[in-house]
Every structure is written in structure tokens, then in C-alpha cells.
Amino acid sequence: xxxxxxxxxxxxxxxxxxxxxxxxxxxxxxxxxxxxxxxxxxxxxxxxxxxxxxxxxxxxxxxxxxxxxxxxxxxxxxxxxxxxxxxxxxxxxxxxxxxxxxxxxxxxxxxxxxxxxxxxxxxxxxxxxxxxxxxxxxxxxxxxxxxxxxxxxxxxxxxxxxxxxxxxxxxxxxxxxxxxxxxxxxxxxxxxxxxxxxxxxxxxxxxxxxxxxxxxxxxxxxxxxxxxxxxxxxxxxxxxxxxxxxxxxxxxxxxxxxxxxxxxxxxxxxxxxxxxxxxxxxxxxxxxxxxxxxxxxxxxxxxxxxxxxxxxxxxxxxxxxxxxxxxxxxxxxxxxxxxxxxxxxxxxxxxxxxxx
Length: 356
Description:
Layout: E1 2-6, E2 14-17, E3 19-20, E4 27-37, H1 39-46, E5 55-56, E6 61-68, E7 80-83, H2 93-96, E8 113-115, E9 118-122, E10 132-136, E11 140-142, H3 149-152, H4 158-170, E12 177-181, H5 185-197, E13 201-206, H6 209-218, E14 222-225, H7 231-238, E15 244-249, H8 254-263, E16 264-272, H9 286-292, E17 295-298, H10 306-318, E18 328-332, H11 337-345, E19 351-355
């Protein structure tokens, strides 16, 4: 099968022929129909991370079950599924507390992809920049039959993370003032989540006017171009001088994380959603945490429970409560994956997808 392989960091992905193992006990083979192109994949290409080359990136996939291994009972051949990336052991301290997004498993994943005799790493147990992939049964969520897979692939990461940050992590209340710093693929879904939660003011912040236009389409009521305005002062001006109730940082930059924290009023919440560099550090004067009562918190994967939350998000989309079609600016073939990365980095797209 064909896959986009990261052989070297900071180099274009290579479209190559790989061998895929048959599903073993508790595993399923998924034929990919579509995969979202997420900035997290680009991070692992451009930065030195725990994902070692050679590797197949991609983690926002939907497809059809083509084979099942021994012991698989929850899905069957022909089912339409979304892949929930990352470990989901169901047995560790966090899984047993209903926090699978914090799973710390004791198991190891066998090699599933090969170039000749050389194993190729499978990014966060997903590897959706490939025609097919093998994952654990617990890592797939069955889709309702009438849901379009090419749209619903976005639920696997961008939508679940963005909407979940609002609904599951911060618990935004109706009537709140919300600021979203970073209007990329995930940030736009934070905007959607704020709209869904009934926020009164939804303030999107970015450096690119094109992204701010996308944010308005997703439900932002106000926009701030941080290249022309001071973010903190502009947010305060829009909120009666006191600041927002909630701020979401969806970039992963210490400077904008500090801006998010400074943008909320006393007692407000600032939520870090963006993926920062592994070596980045944040400096905040702790005395102001005590004096202002502000909360600075992290959000991993939208605090999502995929088997519970993904079907809800699909239903919300099918009922017109959240937007997926409007998120997809461009469609690419697998051969065009490097062009998709370039367009994402340039801010030309809200979200793009690879269609197989």
C-alpha cells in the first residue's frame, strides 16, 4: 500500500510503498477514506519529538473496517469508523477514572508497518497518511451509516479537541465572554464550541485576516488582528474593561499563553490547548495567581471520551448544530500531502483533508 513517510525531519514526506501486517488479537484493519491535515503532524515533522523516523504521520482519519483480528466484538467488516488516536488501554488509573485522554498504558505496540525488513513507526497508534492502517479495536468509534466519512474524519482531532476544550475542560457557561487566541483548525472549533455553549461574545485573535474571516464563519462575534492591536487591551475594551471569562490559547507559544492568562478577569480561566515546543518554558509571577484567583489549565485532546463524545459530535453535525463542511477549504490526494502542509502553514485553509 502507499503511505506518506517521514524519513527525515524538516524534509518533505515521501510517498512510498509499505507493507502492513494483518490484524492480530484485538486489532482491526481500516481502509482510509479521508484524513484531516492537522498542524500537530507538521509539528512532528519540523521539531525533534518522541516520534522517530521513519514514521507515517496522520491521526485524523475515518474509513471502513476491512478485516478484524481474533477477539474483536464491537465492530465488524464493513463498518464505518473514526479512528481515536493514542493509547486507550482501559485499565490504567486514568482510563478507570473516565479520562482516556490521559492514558498511561503499560503495553507496547508491535510494529505494524514495514519497508522491507525495516519497521516504520505508526504515529500515535494511528498513521492515517496511508491507504490502510491497523489499530486496536478500542481505537475505533463506529459511525452512523448516514454520516459522511470525508467530513467526519475531522472529529477525530480538530473538532473533538476544540469543542471539547470548551465543553469538557473549561465548562463554559451560557452568556460568557470567550477569547480564542489562534484561529487555525483547532481554534476554529474552539469558536464553534463557544457558540454551541451559548457564549455571548466570542473573540477570535490571529495575525492573519484570512483566518479571522474563517473564525467569523464559525461563529466569532468579534475579531482582533494581533499584528495591529494589543490583544489584552483589545479584549478588555470589548468586555467592559474587565477581561474575558474564558481564554483559550490554541497556538502553543509561551507569549500567547501569557496573553491568554492576562486576558481573563479575576477568577477567570485560561486554557492551554496549543502544542508547545518540548523545550518551551512559561514564566508567570505566582503572586498574581494568588491575588487574581485566575486559573491556568491545560487541555489534552479536548478531555474527550471518544466512544461517548464522537457519536454526540456526529449527531450535532447531522442536525446542523456544528459545521464540518465549512471547515474543509481544500481536498488533496495523498501525493499532494506536502502541498497540503504548505497551505496550512501559510494560513490559506481552515482545514484540508486527504481523500483516498
